[in-house]
Amino acid sequence: MGFKFKQFTIEHDACTMKVGTDSIMLGSWVQTKNAQRILDIGTGSGLLGIMLAQKTQNTCLIDGIDIDAAAISQAKGNAKNCPWAERLTFQHTSLQHFAFGKGYDLIISNPPYFPINVSANKAHSAQSRPNARQTIELDHPTLLQEVTKHLSASGQFCCVLPVDVAKVFIVDAESLGLYCARELQVQPKQQSHVTRLLLEFSRIKKAKTCGKLSIYDHLGSYSEKYIALCKDYYLNF
Q1: Among residues 41, 96, 123, 147, which one has the fewest Cβ atoms lying within 10 Å of its Cβ?
Q2: Class of domain 3-230
Q3: Which pTM does this prediction carry?
Q4: Domain residue ranges in the chain
């Protein structure tokens, strides 16, 4: 069974990384402005690309890339069955070998973030899941270097990362001329520590705007802020 949203369905049984809260929040939070070209790095099932197709102009073209051939095949199927198929292109390639033309107005990614775990990898005969979750094929410095090549002068780069990883990532980004302009701190519950940061980077240095969101309220239900953020997508919101 696929994951049903208000305007589309995502099949993800062939993907190592399933539809999850991180990507749904990121796709909901991203401001597309007047983007005409968007790149989704590590697209998996195509979820983020399709989410952004829903809220962009009908002239906006969206590319998704992934090193997992099975995921790209599923992303193409998901795109074919959504209302914006003609604006979505998915390609089986690494970011390092991706041939691109003009710069992108918006680049989005839910990137790998765990350090390489040798003992855990030995337990996985298939390599796709470690690649999807760990910084094996695409470490963060390489990701940032590639983003700077692909991003237009006025473009934005958005991603989601665990807090401890994000702190280093922000410093590394600044060293390449990408500055964090917007940040959303996410905690599972109001009493919990912040576990995730949604980040927006720009080549233009300006004062950073920060927000905070709890996914669940004190009763264990989705919080009002989370519902407001994701209401254009979640079937039951």
Answers
A1: 123
A2: alpha beta
A3: 0.89
A4: 3-230
* Cα 51 to the center of its chain, rounded Å: 10
Closest CA to 88 of 41, 27, 38: 38
Give the model confidence (pLDDT) of 178-198 as tens digits.
Answer: 999 999 999 999 889 999 999
Report yes or no: 9 and 91 within 8 Å, Cβ to Cβ: no
Residue 1 and residue 105: Cα distance in Å, rounded?
34
User: Can you tell me the distance from the alpha carbon of 30 to that of 97, in angstroms, rounded to the nearest whole number?
Assistant: 26
The string of pLDDT tens digits covering residues 94-117 is 998 998 777 999 999 998 775 533
In this structure, the number of other CB atoms found within 10 A of the CB of residue 192 comes to: 12
User: How far lies 20's CA from each of 3, 42, 136, 152, 205, in Å?
Assistant: 10, 14, 21, 29, 31
